[in-house]
Design brief:
9-stranded mixed beta sheet, alpha/beta, Aminopeptidase, 6-stranded mixed beta sheet, Glucose Oxidase, domain 1
C-alpha cells in the first residue's frame, strides 16, 4: 500500500509506480525460472539417469560414478559452485566390501537338555543389523497370532531378544511388516523370525545372503540383529520351553509370552573385503542477501538404485526410473530454474544428490555429518523420492505437520492454481515413511523437512521401473510447486520453525536409531 502526502503527490506516485514495477519485474523473473522446468527436460534427464548404461546405479558401482559425473557436469554448466575442498562437487565417503561369514554366523537355542543350532549355511537367513561377531544373549520374549502395529508399540523388549512366529503362507505380509517396524522402535537386542517357507524358497534366501555388499563405518551399530530361522530347527526346543509352534502360529488372538526357560545366543560375523568409496554430489547457489546467504535450503534426492540382478523376462538391470531418477532429475531441474537471471533468492541453496539410500540412507547420513556448511545454518530440507508416477493432480508431502513448512506449502499451493497440483498429508503413516528416506538424516539433526513422495506401485524395486512409465508432465508441475516453495522459503524474513512436540519426538528423542 502507498501513503501519499499532498505536498509530494507526484514524487509518491513515481515511487509507488517504481515499487510496483520492481515487484512485477521480480515476479516475472521468478516465473521465468519456473518456466524452465519442462516435461521434455524431466523426461530427458530421467532417460539419462535410468539408462541401461548406468547399470542400475548400485552403491558403489561404475554406473553410480557415471551418474555422479553427469550431475556434477550439469551443476557446473548451470554456474553452481562446488562447495567442497578445491571447489569440488563430488563428496566421496568410504564404503567397505563385505560378505556374511557363513561359518561364524549362527544362532543357538537351549531349553533344559535340548540344544539346537541354526547355521547361516542352512537354517538361518540374516536380514540386517551388526555383523561384528559379538554374541548376543538376553531374556527372550515370543509373540504369535495376528500381529498388528499397535501391539508392537506396547512391547517391553528393550535389550531383549524377540522371537516372532510368522507365517510365510499368509496372503498379506503387510501386518507383519508393520508389526516389525513397530517392534524395532522398542529397541530389542535381536529379532528372530520363525518362518515356515517352503524348502526351495528358504534355500534360495540362504544362498542369496552370501552376496558381497557395501558397508559404511558405523552402519547398523545401534540396530538390532534381525534374522529368519526355519521352523524345522526350532519345533523341538520351543516345545521344551513350553511353546507348541503350530498352535502358537495359528492362534486366533495376539499372544505374547516371556520365555525364561529358553536361552538364545546369536552372532553374525562379516568376512571383510576391500575398501571402496561412493559419491554424493553437492552444488551451491549463493543467496543474494549478504546476511541471509549464510543460511541454506537443501534440495535432495537419492541418485542410487539397486543395481543388477536377475529379473522378469531376463532383464538384469533395475533402472529405478521412479526410484529415484525422478527425484534426482527434479534436483537438476530445480537447480536450473533457480540459477536463471533474477531467480536467485535471498538465502543460499544446496542441491544434493546422495547415494546409498537403498542400503540404509548411507550418503545422506555421511553428508549430514560432514556437510560443507554448518548444519545449524540449514533452515530446511526438501527431499524428493518417487515423484513420477501415480495420481496426476496430487502429491503426498510427508512431514507437513511437524513444522510451519506445511503452512507455507499450503499458501504457495493456493497461490498457484495453474499447477493443478494438490499437496496432501501422509496416506500411509503405518508404513513409517518418515524415517525411510534421506530427509530423516536432516530431521534428526534439527532441520525442518518436507518429503515429496507419490507412493509405491507394482514396479517398485522391479526391473520394470522404466523411464517409459514416468508421467513427466505431472512431475514438471510438482517441481514447479517445489520451486515456488523454495522461493517463498528462500525469501522469507524468518527461518522455518518446528512444532515443539514434534521437535521433542524427532530431534530430542529420535524416532529410531540412526541409519
Amino acid at each position: 500500500m502507498c501513503y501519499v502526502l499532498p505536498t509530494s503527490r507526484a514524487i509518491a506516485v513515481a515511487l509507488c509506480f517504481a515499487a510496483t514495477s520492481s515487484a512485477a519485474a521480480q515476479d516475472s523473473t521468478v516465473r521465468a525460472g519456473a518456466a524452465t522446468i519442462t516435461e521434455h527436460d524431466v523426461r530427458q534427464r530421467i532417460g539419462v539417469i535410468a539408462d541401461d548404461s548406468m547399470g542400475g546405479r548400485d552403491t558403489p558401482s561404475r554406473g553410480l560414478d557415471l551418474t555422479a559425473s553427469y550431475i556434477a557436469g550439469e551443476f557446473a554448466r548451470m554456474g553452481l559452485r562446488g562447495p567442497l575442498d578445491s571447489g569440488r562437487f563430488i563428496q566421496r565417503y568410504p564404503v567397505g566390501r563385505t560378505r556374511l561369514d557363513g561359518d561364524r554366523s549362527s544362532a543357538t537355542f537351549t531349553a533344559g537338555t535340548v540344544t539346537v543350532s541354526a547355521s547361516a549355511r542352512r537354517d538361518l537367513v540374516y536380514i540386517f543389523g551388526p555383523r561384528t561377531g559379538r554374541p548376543i544373549s538376553a531374556p527372550v520374549v515370543i509373540v504369535g497370532g495376528p500381529l498388528q502395529l499397535d501391539a508392537a508399540r506396547t512391547l517391553e523388549i528393550e535389550g531383549r531378544i524377540l522371537i516372532v512366529v510368522g507365517d510365510a503362507r499368509a496372503p498379506n505380509a503387510t501386518p507383519v511388516n508393520q508389526f516389525l517396524s513397530g517392534a524395532f522402535e522398542r529397541n530389542p537386542a535381536a529379532v528372530i523370525m520363525v518362518m515356515n517357507n517352503d524348502t526351495a524358497t528358504f534355500a534360495k534366501q540362504v544362498t542369496n545372503q552370501f552376496r558381497e555388499r557395501g558397508v559404511v563405518d558405523g552402519e547398523d551399530a545401534t540396530d538390532p540383529v534381525v534374522t529368519m530361522v526355519h521352523e524345522r530347527v526350532l519345533g523341538g526346543v520351543l516345545r521344551a520351553a513350553g511353546i507348541d509352534l503350530p498352535t502358537f502360529r495359528t492362534a486366533s488372538t495376539y499372544t505374547v509370552r516371556d520365555l525364561p526357560a529358553l536361552t538364545v545366543r546369536v552372532a553374525m560375523t562379516d568376512a571383510q573385503g576391500d575398501g571402496l568409496s561412493a559419491p554424493n554430489v553437492v552444488g551451491l547457489l549463493e543467496g543474494s542477501d549478504p546476511v541471509l546467504r549464510h543460511e541454506y535450503i537443501v534440495f535432495s534426492a537419492h541418485m542410487d538404485h539397486v543395481g543388477t540382478r536377475s529379473g522378469a523376462q531376463g532383464d538384469s538391470i533395475w533402472n529405478g526410473a521412479d526410484d529415484d531418477a525422478s527425484g534426482t532429475a527434479g534436483v537438476l531441474e530445480l537447480a536450473e530454474a533457480f540459477s536463471q537471471h533474477g531467480a536467485r533468492p535471498l538465502r543460499s541453496l544446496l542441491f544434493v544428490a546422495v547415494s546409498g539410500e537403498e542400503k540404509g540412507l548411507w550418503g545422506s547420513a555421511y553428508f549430514a555429518a560432514n556437510s560443507p556448511v554448518p548444519m545449524s545454518q540449514v533452515v530446511a530440507n526438501i527431499n524428493m523420492d518417487m515423484i513420477g508416477r501415480n495420481w496426476r493432480d496430487t502429491i503426498v508431502v510427508i512431514g507437513r505437520e511437524h513444522s510451519d513448512l506445511g503452512t507455507t506449502l499450503d499458501r504457495v499451493s493456493a497461490e498457484h492454481p495453474e499447477l493443478d497440483m494438490r499437496a496432501i498429508d501422509d496416506l500411509w503413516p503405518e508404513e513409517n515413511f518418515y524415517v525411510r528416506s534421506d530427509h530423516y538424516n536432516f530431521a534428526r539433526r534439527g532441520v525442518p523437512v518436507l518429503f515429496f513422495f507419490n507412493g509405491t506401485h507394482k514396479d517398485y524395486h522391479q526391473p520394470s521401473d522404466a523411464p517409459a512409465l514416468i508421467d513427466a508432465e505431472k512431475e514438471a508441475r510438482i517441481l514447479r510447486l517445489v520451486y515456488y516453495l523454495g522461493q517463498a522459503l528462500g525469501n522469507a524474513p524468518q527461518r522455518p520453525e518446528w512444532n515443539p512436540d514434534s521437535y521433542k519426538a524427532i530431534v530430542d528423542k529420535k524416532l529410531q536409531p540412526s541409519p
